[in-house]
Amino acid sequence: MENPNELPPMNMTEYKAKRDACRQRIDTKYDIIGFISSGTYGRVYKARSKNKDDGKEYAIKKFKPDKEGEAASYIGISQSACREIALCRELHHENIVELTEVLLQDKSIHMVFEYAEHDLLQIIGSFSHPERKLMSEYTIKSFLWQLLNGVAYLHANWVMHRDLKPANILVTANGVVKVGDLGLARLFYKPLQPLYNGDKVVVTIWYRAPELLLGSRHYTKAIDIWAIGCIFAELITLRPIFKGEEAKVENKKTVPFQKNQLQKIFDILGFPTKERWPAIDQQPEYPNLASFRQSPNVLRSLYQSWPIKSEHGCNLLQAMLEYDPLKRITAEEALNHPYFQEEPKPGMDSFAGQNVDLPLRRITVEDKDMRATAPAPKAHPGPPIKDDRNAKRPRVE
Amino acid sequence: MHRRRLAEAMKEDLEYVDIATLTKIKMWYYNSKRILEKPASKQSPIRSRILIGKIGKRLQFRQQVIATAIVYFKRFYTKNSLRMTDPSLVAATCIYLACKIEECPQHIKHIITEMKNALANHGGFDYDTSKVAEFEFYLLEELEFYLIVYHPYRDLTLIAKDLKLEESNLQTAWFVINDSYRTDVCLLYAPHMIALAALYIICVVHAERTFTDTSGGGNIGSSNPGNLLDDNTANSIITHSTHSNMHLHAQLNNMASKRSPHHALNVEGHGINNRDMVQWFADLNVEMEEIIEITQEMLSLYNIWKDYGEENIPSMIKILKAKRVVDPSISHPQHNLLHESPLHAFNQQHIHPLQAAPMTSQPGHPAMQQ
C-alpha cells in the first residue's frame, strides 16, 4: 500500500456465497421427462413442473458452455443466447413462444419455455408420410394467420425474426401457433450499424429473401414476410417451394453467391426485371444476374394446379413473394387481406373439427441427464423426421 | 423504482461515508467507463467539421452502449452495497454485457485490457476472462434477465425533430442527458420524462442567458462535448434552482413576460421561442411536477460536481472499504435484510421498452426506407 492510489483488494467470496445460496436448482423445480433435440446452441429437454398446482409441461433449452470438456469454464454468454434472453423477456404474445424463466446452473444457461407438442416441420412431415394427405384449407389458413399475427407483433415492436422456417414455428396440442427460436432475432430500431455487419448470413437458404441472396446490406423486416410466403406455399403442397442447393461457404470472409437458390425462385416467379424491382441494380450481386436467362412469372398457373382454389389466396401469396421488399406486403396488411375474410375463416385452434391425428413429439426418456454435454450417441434414435433443414444453420459469426 | 428502495440499498455504505462522498465515488466509476470510450474514438480523429455528423453518429452509438452499461451498474447497486462487491469487476461485466445487447460485441479480452489500462493507477484490474464471464452470470441474475434498456436520447431526437430544435440546443440537451446518467434519474423516471426535463433545462438556461448576457453566446456547452456543461451554464442552472420549485408553467410564463422584445428576438435566434415552449409544455399530457423533480435532481448533481475532485476518490474508497476490517460484524444482519428475496424484490420498475413505450408510434423508420 505504498502507492496512495492503490485500492484495497476486494474479495467477492461473501457476495458469491450469498447469491449461490439462494439460487434454485433445476431439479428442485422440474422433473425432466426426456430429451427432445439438439442443435448448435445446445440441447432441449422436456420437463414438468414439480409444483402439483402447475402441472404444465415445459421445454428447457440448455445452452452448452462454449468449451466442452470435463472442466467447463466460463467464457461468456453467446450473442445468440443474449439476444434470445433479452427479447423473450420482453415479448408476450399468444403467438410467440413464452419464456417462463431463466435458470443458471453448471455454468450453463437454461431457458424454460412453455411446451409445444408440434412444429410445422413435423406436421408437414406427418402429412406427407407414410401416405400423402392434404392439409385442410382451414388448418392452413389458421396456421398462416396466427403466424402473421405473431410476426406482426414482433415487427410492431421493432423485432425482426430473421430465421423463420417450419422447424421454428411451433404448434401446441390445441392448434395454437407459437413462433419460436429467437436466437437470430434482433431489434431493428435505428440500427447503429448496418444489420449486415452483425450477421453476414441470415435465414435458412430455402426461405431466404431475394434481397438477401443478392447481398443487400440494408435488409428490412420484409425478409420475414418472404419466409412466411414460402411457408404458406409449403403448407399447401407439403414441399418447399424453392428447394435450392446451398453454395457452401468457402472461407469465412466472403459470402458465396447462391446461384442455384435464385434459379429456383426465378423458375417460378420469373426473372426480376427493373420494372418489378426498381432498386435491383443497387444490389451488390446484381452483376451476377447477367448469367440468368429471362423467364416469365408462372406462380399463378402453378397455384391453379394446387388444391387450394381461392383467388385471394393466390394474391396474398404473390404479395408475400414480391421481389421488391418495398412493395412486399407487411404482416399488418396481410392480416387484413381479403383471403382471411372469406370462408373458411381462420381460428385460434388450427385443428378444430379437423380430425387430424398427429404423432406426439418424440421424447427420448432414457436421456434425462441434463449434465451430459457431449453430443447424443450415434445409436440414439433421432427425431421422427430427418431434419436436414434444421441440422445446420448457416451463420458467420 | 422508489426512492425508498434506493435509500435502503445505500444504507450499509452510508454507515461508513456520507452521502456526498458516496455519490462522488459512484461518479468515479461512471467516469472510468467513459475512459473506455476514448480508445475507440481515437480511431476517428476529428479531421474536419464535415466529419462531425459521422462522428456524432458514432458517438451516439458509443453513448448508447455506455448508457446501457451504466444502467446495469446502477441496477446492480440497487441490490448490493459497494462494500461487499468490487465495482471494477461489476463495471467491466456491465460493459461486456451491454456491448452484446447493443449489438456491437467486443471481445471479452479487449474489455479486460481496457479496464487494466483505465485502472492502472487505481489498483489495477485483477480479473481474467473466466472471472468476468463467471460474474456475467451473477449480473444476469441481478438484472433478472431484463437486458433491453430504453434511453432518453431517442425521445429527445424525436422531440427535437418535432420542434425543429436548433442543432446547438439539441447538443446541449444531449449533454444534459449524458450527465443525467451520473444521477439516479434513469432508475426513477421514464426515459421520455428525462428527455423532456433536459429540454426544460435548456429552455430555462436560455431565458436566463438572455437576461444576463444580451450578447447571447451561441453554442452553450458545445465547447465541452460529451462532458459536463461549461461552468457558466452550470452556474446559471444552479442559480436558477431557487426558482425551480415553482410550477413550470408559471415560471416559463414569468420569464416570458419579463423579457423585452429585444430579448425575445434574441431567444428566437437560438431556435427556442419560450412563448411557444410554454404552450408546448402545457399541451403535453405529462406530469409537470415530475419534470421539475428530475430537474432538481440534475441541479443537485451539478452542485456536487462543483467540488468533485478525482484525486480524492481513492482515499474515499479506502474509507468505505477499510472500516470493514475494524468491525466486520456490523454489515451482516443488515445485509440479509437487503437481500431477502433477490428474485422478487426489484420489481416492475424496470423500463420495458416493448411495453411501456410502444415502439409502434414512430413512422418512417430509416431501416424501412433503405
UniProtKB/TrEMBL annotation, chain A:
The record's annotation in CDD domains points to: STKc_CDK8_like (cd07842)
Q: Name one Pfam family in it.
A: Pkinase
Gene Ontology terms, MF aspect: ATP binding; cyclin-dependent protein serine/threonine kinase activity; metal ion binding; RNA polymerase II CTD heptapeptide repeat kinase activity
Q: Where in the cell is it found?
A: Nucleus
Q: Which domain of life is it from?
A: Eukaryota
Q: What EC number(s) is this enzyme filed under?
A: 2.7.11.22, 2.7.11.23
Renumbered residue ranges of the record's region Disordered = 366-397
Q: Which InterPro entries match?
A: CDK (IPR050108), Kinase-like_dom_sf (IPR011009), Prot_kinase_dom (IPR000719), Ser/Thr_kinase_AS (IPR008271)
Q: Where is the Protein kinase domain?
A: 30-340
- Where composition is biased (Basic and acidic residues), the residues are 385-397
| SMART domains hit by this protein | S_TKc
Q: Which reaction does it catalyse?
A: [DNA-directed RNA polymerase] + ATP = phospho-[DNA-directed RNA polymerase] + ADP + H(+); L-threonyl-[protein] + ATP = O-phospho-L-threonyl-[protein] + ADP + H(+); L-seryl-[protein] + ATP = O-phospho-L-seryl-[protein] + ADP + H(+)
Which key words are in the record? ATP-binding, Kinase, Metal-binding, Nucleotide-binding, Nucleus, Repressor, Serine/threonine-protein kinase, Transferase
Question: Which Gene Ontology terms of cellular component type are present?
Answer: mediator complex
Family annotation (PANTHER family): CELL DIVISION PROTEIN KINASE, CYCLIN-DEPENDENT KINASE 8-RELATED
According to its UniProt record, which protein family does this protein belong to?
Belongs to the protein kinase superfamily. CMGC Ser/Thr protein kinase family. CDC2/CDKX subfamily.
This one is known as Cyclin-dependent kinase 8
Species of origin: Lunasporangiospora selenospora
Instruction: Name the gene for this chain.
Output: SSN3
UniProtKB/TrEMBL annotation, chain B:
**Pfam entry (one):** Cyclin_N
Which example biological process does GO assign this protein? regulation of transcription by RNA polymerase II
Q: Which InterPro entries match?
A: Cyclin-like_dom, Cyclin-like_sf, Cyclin/Ssn8, Cyclin_C_2, Cyclin_N
Kindly list the GO molecular function terms attached to this UniProt entry: cyclin-dependent protein serine/threonine kinase regulator activity
The protein here is known as RNA polymerase II holoenzyme cyclin-like subunit
Name the domain of life: Eukaryota
- Looking at the UniProt entry, the stretches that span the membrane are 186-207
- Is NADP tagged as a keyword? no
Q: Which GO terms describe its cellular component?
A: nucleus
Q: What is its main location?
A: nucleus
* Residues in Cyclin-like domain copies: 50-141, 154-300
Gene source species: Lunasporangiospora selenospora
Question: Which SMART domains does this UniProt record tie to the protein?
Answer: CYCLIN (SM00385)
Keywords from UniProt, A to Z, are:
Activator, Cyclin, Membrane, Nucleus, Repressor, Transcription, Transcription regulation, Transmembrane, Transmembrane helix
Protein family per UniProt: Belongs to the cyclin family. Cyclin C subfamily.
Subcellular location per the Swiss-Prot or TrEMBL entry: Nucleus
Organism lineage = Eukaryota, Fungi, Fungi incertae sedis, Mucoromycota, Mortierellomycotina
